UniProtKB/TrEMBL annotation, chain A:
Similarity remark: Belongs to the WD repeat ARPC1 family.
UniProt xrefs under Pfam families: WD40
Function as written in the Swiss-Prot or TrEMBL entry: Component of the Arp2/3 complex, a multiprotein complex that mediates actin polymerization upon stimulation by nucleation-promoting factor (NPF). The Arp2/3 complex mediates the formation of branched actin networks in the cytoplasm, providing the force for cell motility. In addition to its role in the cytoplasmic cytoskeleton, the Arp2/3 complex also promotes actin polymerization in the nucleus, thereby regulating gene transcription and repair of damaged DNA. Functions as component of the Arp2/3 complex which is involved in regulation of actin polymerization and together with an activating nucleation-promoting factor (NPF) mediates the formation of branched actin networks.
The organism of origin for this protein: Carassius auratus (Goldfish)
Top-level taxon: Eukaryota
Keyword list, A-Z: Actin-binding, Cytoplasm, Cytoskeleton, Nucleus, Repeat, WD repeat
Protein name: Actin-related protein 2/3 complex subunit
UniProtKB/TrEMBL annotation, chain B:
Record carries keyword Hydrolase: no
Subcellular location: Cytoplasm, Cytoskeleton
Gene Ontology molecular-function annotations: actin binding
Annotated family: Belongs to the ARPC5 family.
One GO cellular component, as annotated: Arp2/3 protein complex
Name recorded for this polypeptide: Actin-related protein 2/3 complex subunit 5
Predominant location category: cytoplasm
Alphabetized UniProt keyword annotations: Actin-binding, Cytoplasm, Cytoskeleton
Key word Ubl conjugation present: no
Source taxon at top rank: Eukaryota
Pfam families with a match to the protein in the record: P16-Arc
Biological processes annotated in GO: Arp2/3 complex-mediated actin nucleation; regulation of actin filament polymerization
Source organism of this protein record: Carassius auratus
Length: 369, 150
């Protein structure tokens, strides 16, 4: 597990390039900074300045090496590397509120942008006009879309929203692709069709993720719950209420295990058992450093009693690696099927890379199924 | 500066009602939710069977009901049971609840905090401490984010 502190400000969002040598992140302002790994240092090699508002989402397409960014200025830009510089292309999203999240589709011929205008803009490139065009998914979304994830078939899109629901939509664009084969979520997939809508959890849906096969979707909600739904004739939902603060981001690391992180500043493992359709808590994934236990002098004890009415010697210092909420999780190696490394960035301006093998051996009861 | 701190009661129109994008919660039926049976609970308290009274008081919570009287009545019954408990019995009572029960108990506790009476706050704080030990911060977050509350 290696922690690197990039900034003092929160990292709003980040994205990795294909070989994980470069990271693009937004330092809580209108710019995107790209850092390149050089041994154990990170050097800033590019600064992308085009947005007029905070950049809220970045996604880096691994194969075509294009970056899409979206921001509170209601715009999205697609950046392509020309020589040694990144050149932006404006995409008109036709929204009248801030854009909140953006994701390339698996085949990288479309991307989806979630916004505060209560709709999802699915954008594709129109060859004739040499221009990015977008289509809107509006019904039945009733509030801001906070997070998006694509199904491996390039058509289905999971969206978590502030109207307390996680939905799976079809984002089938006939201009760029063939009719999709039937999936566990349904067979008729016209554009904008709702294939699944969640019930049972209250609270804004902060993070959503499809599993590697696309048959399961997991979401983390603001009422401190995590839920997994499995597609089928009747979609089966399993949710787990937790005793921690709400989780902000969630991802599958194998078909049955999820890692999630949020306001508690450490990643947590959950295990899904499909036979029992139940989700269970797997363990905390942060190995706190063993700090030396100082003995308390009588004076300190009296002071504690005077100030805090307690003789407890616990200080109010977080033992986790991140010192503030973790806002985004991304998989580095192994994909969602057999993740070997994942990365977290947070409001403390730091980025941590977690190694799954090391975690498994360090935590005795941890079992990643 | 002085103008905007004056009373705004002259405003006759609630403009939020006319907003076509106004968020309306899903309507669920409020069928069987009349709240716990007050007489049964009273009998049990008089007999001294606190645990059963406690469990019965937490049944049938009027969560989906839009009738404030039903909610007030349920709150009063639960508060009676909570105040009738001895301090040492609180912890086993909380341990006997499942996850949803602890969340429901937290909802009633916070509802009780809203209208403090003579000694209700002290007892409620003890209940809060024990429920927090089992439910953690998550149960309090669920009280804050619940759309359908007791």
């Amino acid at each position: 597990m290696s922690y690197h502190s990039f900034l003092l400000e929160p990292i709003s969002c980040h994205a990795w390039n294909k070989d994980r040598t470069q990271i693009a992140l937004c330092p809580n302002n209108h710019e995107v900074h790209i850092y390149k790994k050089d041994g154990s240092n990170w050097n800033k090699i590019h600064v992308l300045k085009e947005h007029n508002g905070q950049v809220t989402g970045i996604d880096w397409a691994p194969e075509s090496n294009r970056i899409v960014t979206c921001g509170t200025d209601r715009n999205a830009y697609v950046w392509t590397l020309k020589g040694d510089a990144w050149k932006p292309t404006l995409v008109i999203l036709r929204i009248n509120r801030a854009a909140r999240c953006v994701k390339w589709s698996p085949k990288e011929n479309k991307f989806a942008v979630g916004s505060g205008s209560r709709l999802i803009s699915v954008c594709y490139f129109e060859q004739d006009n040499d221009w990015w065009v977008c289509k809107h998914i509006k019904k039945p979304i009733r509030s801001t879309i906070l997070c998006l994830d694509w199904h491996p078939n390039n058509v289905l899109l999971a969206a978590g929203s502030c109207d307390f629901k996680c939905r799976i939509f079809s984002a089938y664009i006939k201009e760029v692709e063939e009719k999709p084969a039937p999936t566990a979520w349904g067979s008729k997939m016209p554009f904008g069709e709702v294939m699944f809508e969640s019930t049972g959890t209250a609270g804004w849906v902060h993070g959503v993720c499809f599993s590697d096969s696309g048959n399961r979707v997991a979401w983390a909600s603001h009422d401190s719950t995590v839920a997994v739904a499995e597609g089928g004739k009747t979609a089966v939902c399993a949710s787990l209420t937790s005793e921690t603060l709400p989780l902000l981001c969630v991802t599958f690391i194998t078909e049955n295990s999820l890692v999630a992180a949020g306001h508690d500043c450490y990643p947590v493992l959950f295990v899904y058992d499909s036979n029992k359709a139940a989700l269970s808590f797997g363990g905390k994934l942060d190995i706190p450093k063993q700090s030396a236990q100082k003995g308390m002098s009588a004076r300190e004890r009296f002071q504690n009693l005077d100030k805090k009415a307690t003789t407890d010697s616990k200080e109010a210092v977080l033992e986790s690696v991140h010192k503030n909420s973790i806002s985004q999780l991304s998989i580095l190696n192994g994909g969602k099927a057999q993740c070997a490394k994942f990365c977290t960035t947070g409001m403390d301006g730091g980025m941590t890379i977690w190694d799954v093998k090391t975690l498994e051996s360090a935590m005795k009861d941890l079992k990643i199924v | 500066m002085a103008k905007n701190t004056l009373s705004s009661r002259f405003r006759g129109v609630d403009i939020d009602e006319y907003d076509e994008n106004k968020f309306v919660d899903d309507q669920d039926e409020a069928a069987e939710q009349q709240g716990p049976d007050a007489c049964e609970v009273d009998d049990l308290i008089r007999q001294g069977d606190m645990m059963t009274a406690f469990h019965i008081a937490l049944r049938n919570p009027p969560i989906n009901s839009k009738n404030p009287a039903v909610k007030e009545r349920a709150q009063a019954v639960v508060l009676r049971v909570l105040t009738a408990f001895k301090s040492s019995d609180i912890e086993p009572a909380v341990k006997s609840l499942d996850r949803n029960g602890v969340d429901l108990l937290m909802k009633y506790i916070y509802r009780g905090f809203e209208k403090p009476s003579d000694n209700s706050s002290a007892i409620l704080l003890q209940w809060h401490e024990k429920a927090f030990a089992v439910g953690g911060l998550g149960s309090i977050v669920r009280v804050l984010t619940a759309r359908k509350s007791v």
